[in-house]
Structures are given as C-alpha cells and as structure tokens.
C-alpha cells in the first residue's frame, strides 16, 4: 500500500517516557509496518524496521518517544512540558480497533461528556455544547472559548465548575487540550492525545500530561485520566465504519460538531487518505 507523504513524513508516538524498561526490546506496528524499538545500554532510544533492518529517525519530546518511517519536519512545540512547576505523567497506552483519526475526533467531542463521563467531565442535565470559535493557525486547528460544566474536572477538585477548554489539532493524529486548572484557574492543564496508527483501523493511544496539581500523587493523577480513557474504549471500538468518512454529508452533524467538521475538512485539504473511509 502506497502511503501519502502527508502521513508518511510525520513523527509518530510509540511510547511515553514512563513505559520503557532499559535493555528490553519492544515489537509494534506503525502504518502497517513491523517495528522494533527500545532503550539501549546507554539508555538511548532507538528504532528499527523489522523487515528491512533500517534504523529509523527517533525523537524524545513532550515526555514521548517518537519515530518516523519517512522524512519528518520538526515536531510541533508544547513549551508547558519544560515548565518545572508542572507534574508530567502519562496514562498506560490503550489499543483500540479504530482509525487513529476517529480517536482524535472523539477526543475533540464535548457532546459525549455527560453520557460517557458522567460524574467527572459531565453531568445530567448539562448536555448543551455552547458555541465556540474554530480557527486555522500555522496549519493547526484551534477551537477556543469552549466551555463545559464539569462536576469533577480534575482529581484534586470536587465540586462542579464551568471549565474552559482550548483544543489544538497539531497534526492529523495528534491533539492537545488546554483545560482550566481548577486549582490554579489562571493557568491551564495540558492533556495530549498522541495516536500511533498501527494499521488503518487499529491504533494505540498515548496520553502524556503536564498538570499543575502538587497535592495528588502521580498515580492518583494517572488513574483519574486512565479511567476516563477507559470509558472511551467502548465508543472507540464500536465506530462504524472504523475508518473516518471525510464526506461532509455521510454522518449527521450539528453545531456542536464545528471542530469535527473543521478537522475533516482540514484532513481532506491536506490529502490525508490513510485511516479514512473512501465511499467510492
Ligand atoms: Fe471521552
């Protein structure tokens, strides 16, 4: 299968920093190709194509190990990972039977919060998604002024409040969420969604975070987010079709879907085919 360069020439996550044991060799798949990676005896990250034995370009950034099967440009920046005040952690990766593009789209969707994440990210009867602004800047998508009532927006904060979100789609398979930090409302917690497309319809979800909570343990912070991610697995594994349709009229859309429509249009304009559903 010939993969278009807009997909091939990208960095892809294969692990977060907390997941690799030095000296252990890991086998996985990326864009249908068999890969192997790990930390060598000097704790240096490496990756190899298992068929051709070619060394692959590697990168360690945003608490994540990245590799590429092509010629990738510089990775997008997230300066908050350098902020010493923040706690940096990641969920245990989760494998799902769906296109990586579907995973990103689900991450961008606020409308499912009260139904799927009741008690944390949403609560009945607060189901309305207020209008928000979508812009394209430097070839990334930003959704600003997103606001949602959340009964427990973060581990160390019980009691509902309106939480402001900024979504940033930084690449076809990557998104970053900037979310009001209930403990420091002037600042925002960072939750990343970095997707490893193993095959067109199978993905691994990596979720590093940079949070401003210094009262909870890292394990408590991880479990809070891991449980939320766990609630999404059922939706992700049951998408029909598993690949993302890019045709605007294929699925019914409402105003709450402005970011999703912008994402599909942006993928279409970039010429992304891998992981999309072609109706022809
Ligand atoms: Fe969700």
UniProtKB/TrEMBL annotation:
MF-aspect GO terms: dioxygenase activity
Domain of life: Bacteria
Domain Vanillate O-demethylase oxygenase-like C-terminal catalytic: 101-269
Keyword Oxidoreductase in annotation: yes
Keywords associated with the record: Dioxygenase, Oxidoreductase
SUPFAM superfamilies: Bet v1-like
Keyword Signal: no
Record-given protein name: Aromatic ring-hydroxylating dioxygenase subunit alpha
Originating organism: Advenella mandrilli
Top-level taxonomy: Bacteria, Pseudomonadati, Pseudomonadota, Betaproteobacteria, Burkholderiales
């Amino acid at each position: 299968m010939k993969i278009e360069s807009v997909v091939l020439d990208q960095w892809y996550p294969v692990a977060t920093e907390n997941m690799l044991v030095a000296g252990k060799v890991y086998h996985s798949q990326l864009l249908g190709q068999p890969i192997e990676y790990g930390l060598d005896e000097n704790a240096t990250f490496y990756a190899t194509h298992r068929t051709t034995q070619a060394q692959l370009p590697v990168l360690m950034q945003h608490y994540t190990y990245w590799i590429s099967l092509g010629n990738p440009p510089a990775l997008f920046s997230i300066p908050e990972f350098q902020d010493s005040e923040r706690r940096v952690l990641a969920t245990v990766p989760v494998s799902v039977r769906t296109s990586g593009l579907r995973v990103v789209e689900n991450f961008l969707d606020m409308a499912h919060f009260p139904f799927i994440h009741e008690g944390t990210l949403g609560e009945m009867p607060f189901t309305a998604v207020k209008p928000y602004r979508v812009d394209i800047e430097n070839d990334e998508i930003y959704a600003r002024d997103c606001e949602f009532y959340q009964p427990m927006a973060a581990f160390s904060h019980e009691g509902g409040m309106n939480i402001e979100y900024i979504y940033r789609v930084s690449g076809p398979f990557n998104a970053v969420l900037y979310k009001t930090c209930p403990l420091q409302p002037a600042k925002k917690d960072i939750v990343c969604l970095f997707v490893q497309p193993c095959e067109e319809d199978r993905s691994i979800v990596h979720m590093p975070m940079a949070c401003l909570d210094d009262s909870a343990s890292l394990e408590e912070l991880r479990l809070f987010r891991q449980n939320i991610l766990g609630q999404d697995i059922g939706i992700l594994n049951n998408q029909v079709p598993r690949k993302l349709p890019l045709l605007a009229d294929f699925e019914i859309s409402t105003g709450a879907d402005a970011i999703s429509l912008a994402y599909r249009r942006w993928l279409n304009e970039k010429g992304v085919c891998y992981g999309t559903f072609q109706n022809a």
